[in-house]
Write a structure and sequence with these properties.
The chain has one helix and two strands, in the order E-E-H. By secondary structure, it is an alpha+beta fold.
Length: 52
């Protein structure tokens, strides 16, 4: 099977924080870039070390 490669991607998230004391809502937009190798690392299941 052929290996696919993609151009760098952009990830966006919007975070809403509501302050308990004032009820004021703050909105933050986070933007990041990810390349092929980083995306592959994100898609790999986490390896958890077992210690006894």
């Amino acid at each position: 099977m052929a290996e696919l490669k993609a151009a760098e991607g952009e990830l966006k998230a919007v975070i809403h924080v509501t302050r308990k004391e004032t009820g004021k809502v703050e909105t933050y937009e986070v933007v990041g870039k990810v390349n092929h190798e980083e995306m592959q690392a994100l898609l790999q299941p986490e390896q958890k070390e077992v210690t006894e």
